[in-house]
Design goal:
With about 650 residues, the protein is of the alpha+beta class. Helix content is about 50%, strand content about 15%. Strands 7-6-11-10-9-8 form a six-stranded antiparallel sheet. Strand 3 and strand 4 form a beta hairpin. The two termini are about 60 Å apart.
C-alpha cells in the first residue's frame, strides 16, 4: 500500500513539474513574442509617420511661401506711399483698393498701417469686425516691419477672432540708404500686412484623417486637424511663458490648458509614447476632443526650419497591441499544443510501461503455474500439453517481435545517418570550393609558365593540382564513409601540420592579397597530436583563416595572427585579425547555419557552422569573440594525446 502511495505521489509531482515547465515556457515565449511584434510594428509606424510629416511639412512651407513676397510687392504701390505721406485719398477708395487686391491674391485680409501701427485702410472694411482704426503696434510683425524687416507672425486676431499667419513689409518714402529729410521717424512711413488663413489646410488634414498638429516654440497647439486640440499645450507652461503670451495677446486670453497626458516615454529625439488620462484621451476618428479608454499613442515630431514651429502626428497604437496580442496567442496555442502532444506521449509511454509490468507479472504467474503442472503432469497431461503448445506459440511470436524491433532500430539509425548526409551535402560545395579555387589558380599559372617556356614550373603546378584533387577525393570520401554503416575511425593527427597546410593552401592559391600573416608556434609544434582527422582539421583552419582574410583585405596595415600554445591536457590555437571586430548582435549567431555578415553572394554562412560541428566531433571547443587588442578572435581547444595514447592509435 505504501509503495502504491509512493508511485501516486511521484506521478503527481511529475505532472506538477511538467505543467510548471509549461507555464514558464509560455511566459517566456509570450514576452519575447510580444516585445518583438510590438517593437517591429512601432518602428513601422515611426517610419510611416516620418514620411507623412516630411510631405506635410513641405506642403505647409510651400503654402506659406506663396504669400511671402506679396507684402513686398504691395509695398511699392504708389497709392499706399501717397496716402501715408499726404493722406489725401478718401478712406473708402483706399479700402476698396485693398479689397480688390485681397480678392486677387486670395488672402484672408490685407490692411495698411501708418508709422504708429494704426490701421488706415483694410480689405475687411465692410465687416462688423473691421481693422480700420485699430492699433496693432503691439504685434511683433509690425515691430519687425518698423525695423525694416519682413514681419512673420501667427496669432489669433484680437479683432476678427480668427487665426491667421501675418506677413508685414515696411513702406518707406525713399529706398533705404538713399537719404532724405522726412519727418522725425525717418524714411519709415508705415507697413502693409497680408493675413493668410490656414483653415483650408487644416480641413485637408481632417478630410484625410491625418492627425496633425503644429505647435509654436512654447509648445502651444495653434494648428490641428481636430478643432478641439487647438489652444492646448504638450506640456505645462511656466509662469514666465504664460505672462509673456498674455502680454503679446497672441491667443487673446485663452487659458491654454495642457493636454491630459498622464505618462510619457521618450524613444528618441523625434518620437514619444503618450498615455492620456483614462476616459479623456484624443479620439482620432471624430471631431470631439477627448474620449476613450486611456490607450497609448505615438507622437512623432519634426521641426519646421525657419519658423520655430514643430509639426506632430498622433498615431493610435491599438493596432500594434492587437497585432502583438494575436501573435502572442498564436505562440501560446502552438507551445501549448506541443506540450500537450508531449504530455500525451508521456502518458502513452507510462501506460506501455504499466502493460509491460503486467506482462512480467503474468509471465511469473505462468511460470508458477507451469511448475504446478509439472507436479501434476501425470494427472493432467492433456491440459499441460495444450498449455505448453500455446506458450511455445507466444514465445515464437515474442522473439519474432523482438527481432523486428531490433531491425527497425537499426534502420532508424541508418536513416538518421542518411538524413545527416543530406544536411552535410549543403556544406560540400563550401568545403570543395577552396581546393577548386586553388586548382584554377595553379592551372592558370601552368598555362602562363608553358607560354614562357618553363616546363619545370609547369611540372610543379601539375604536382600541386594532383595533390589538391587527392584532397578533394578525401573530402568526398569522408561523406561516403559517414553514409556507410561502419563507424568513422579517427587517428592521431598533428593539428599544427593541418594549420600550416591550410595556411600554405591559402598562400599558394594567391588569396592573401598583401596581408601580413604572423605565425607563432612552438619549436616542436608538429610533435603534439590529437585524436582527429587531418583533412577535417585542415578545413577548420582554412575556414578561420579565410574569414579573417575576408575581413581585413583591402584595409591599410591588414594583419592576421595564427598562434599555438600547449597546456597540460589540451592544445590551443588562435586566429586573430585587426579588422573592425564582431558586432554585438552577431556574437550569439556566429555558428548558426546560413548566418553570415557578408554581402549577398559572398558567403553561404556555412563555414563556421561546419567548423563548429567538426570540432565538436573531435571533443573540442571552438569560440568566437572580440579581442582586447581589437579585431575578431577565434580560439580552438582540442584534447591532447599523450605518448601512451599515441601508441594506442598508431
Amino acid at each position: 500500500m505504501w509503495c502504491g502511495r509512493g508511485v501516486a505521489l511521484q506521478a503527481q509531482l511529475s505532472r506538477m513539474a511538467f505543467f510548471g515547465v509549461l507555464l514558464l515556457t509560455l511566459a517566456v515565449a509570450d514576452v519575447v513574442t510580444w516585445q518583438a511584434t510590438w517593437n517591429g510594428h512601432l518602428q513601422q509606424q515611426i517610419d510611416a509617420a516620418h514620411q507623412d510629416l516630411e510631405l506635410r511639412a513641405q506642403n505647409l512651407q510651400g503654402f506659406l511661401s506663396r504669400y511671402e513676397l506679396l507684402p513686398e510687392l504691395l509695398a511699392v504701390d504708389t497709392v499706399f506711399k501717397q496716402q501715408l505721406r499726404v493722406n489725401k485719398l478718401a478712406p473708402n477708395i483706399l479700402n476698396a483698393h485693398l479689397e480688390r487686391l485681397n480678392s486677387i491674391i486670395g488672402g484672408s485680409d490685407v490692411y495698411l498701417m501708418d508709422r504708429h501701427g494704426v490701421t488706415l485702410a483694410a480689405s475687411n472694411w465692410r465687416t462688423e469686425r473691421s481693422f480700420v482704426g485699430k492699433d496693432f503696434s503691439f504685434r511683433p510683425y509690425f515691430k519687425a516691419a518698423r525695423e525694416g524687416k519682413l514681419g512673420r507672425y501667427f496669432a489669433l486676431g484680437v479683432v476678427s477672432r480668427k487665426r491667421g499667419y501675418y506677413f508685414a513689409h515696411p513702406i518707406h518714402s525713399t529706398p533705404l540708404g538713399a537719404g532724405g529729410d522726412d519727418d522725425a521717424l525717418g524714411m519709415f512711413l508705415g507697413a502693409v500686412t497680408v493675413k493668410v488663413s490656414l483653415d483650408d489646410l487644416e480641413q485637408s488634414w481632417y478630410d484625410a484623417q491625418a492627425n496633425i498638429m503644429v505647435t509654436d516654440r512654447d509648445g502651444v497647439v495653434f494648428l490641428a486637424a481636430h478643432p478641439n486640440w487647438r489652444y492646448h499645450t504638450l506640456g505645462t507652461l511656466s509662469l514666465e511663458k504664460r505672462q509673456a503670451i498674455q502680454k503679446s495677446r497672441r491667443f487673446a486670453g485663452i487659458p491654454l490648458q495642457p493636454l491630459p497626458i498622464v505618462h510619457e516615454e521618450k524613444r528618441d529625439a523625434f518620437s514619444r509614447l503618450l498615455t492620456f488620462k483614462q476616459g479623456i484621451e484624443p479620439n482620432l476618428n471624430t471631431s470631439r476632443a477627448f474620449s476613450g479608454q486611456g490607450k497609448r499613442f505615438l507622437l512623432y515630431s519634426l521641426p519646421l526650419p525657419g519658423t520655430g514651429w514643430d509639426m506632430h502626428t498622433l498615431v493610435d497604437l491599438a493596432p500594434a497591441s492587437r497585432h502583438a496580442f494575436a501573435n502572442t496567442m498564436i505562440v501560446t496555442y502552438t507551445v501549448g499544443l506541443l506540450f500537450l502532444l508531449v504530455y500525451v506521449m508521456q502518458q502513452r509511454r507510462a501506460a506501455h510501461m504499466a502493460r509491460m509490468a503486467l506482462e512480467r507479472k503474468t509471465q511469473l504467474a505462468l511460470k508458477q503455474a507451469h511448475d504446478e503442472l509439472e507436479i501434476r503432469v501425470e494427472r493432467r497431461t492433456a491440459a499441460l500439453q495444450q498449455s505448453n503448445e500455446q506458450l511455445s506459440v507466444e514465445v515464437r511470436e515474442r522473439k519474432k517481435a523482438e527481432e523486428e524491433l531490433k531491425q527497425a532500430q537499426s534502420d532508424l539509425v541508418q536513416a538518421g545517418k542518411l538524413a545527416a548526409v543530406g544536411q552535410m551535402a549543403a556544406g560540400i560545395t563550401h568545403e570543395i570550393n577552396q581546393p577548386l579555387t586553388a586548382i584554377r589558380a595553379y592551372a592558370d599559372n601552368a598555362q602562363a609558365f608553358m607560354q614562357r617556356g618553363r616546363p619545370e614550373k609547369v611540372q610543379d603546378n601539375l604536382v600541386l593540382i594532383a595533390e589538391l584533387t587527392e584532397t578533394m577525393g578525401r573530402i568526398v570520401n569522408h561523406l561516403k564513409v559517414f553514409s556507410r554503416k561502419s563507424p568513422e575511425t579517427l587517428k592521431a593527427t598533428s593539428p599544427a601540420i593541418a594549420a600550416q597546410e591550410a595556411l600554405g593552401l591559402l598562400e599558394s592559391a594567391g588569396k592573401v592579397w598583401g596581408i601580413d600573416i604572423t605565425v607563432n608556434f612552438p619549436e616542436n609544434a608538429d610533435s603534439y597530436q590529437v585524436l582527429a582527422d587531418d583533412i577535417m582539421l585542415q578545413q577548420v583552419f582554412l575556414n578561420l583563416l579565410k574569414n579573417g582574410r575576408d575581413v581585413v583585405k583591402g584595409q591599410d596595415g591588414a594583419k592576421l595572427w595564427l598562434s599555438m600554445w600547449v597546456s597540460a591536457n589540451h592544445l590551443h590555437f588562435a586566429v586573430r585579425d585587426n579588422g573592425p571586430g564582431i558586432e554585438a548582435e552577431a556574437l550569439d549567431q556566429l555558428f548558426d547555419p546560413f548566418f553570415t555578415t557578408k554581402p549577398v553572394g559572398k558567403g553561404m554562412g556555412l563555414g563556421l557552422s561546419i567548423s563548429y560541428g567538426i570540432v565538436r566531433q573531435f571533443k573540442g571547443v571552438l569560440r568566437g569573440e572580440n579581442a582586447a587588442q581589437g579585431g575578431a578572435l577565434f580560439t580552438l581547444e582540442l584534447p591532447r594525446l599523450k605518448k601512451s595514447q599515441d601508441e594506442d592509435h598508431v
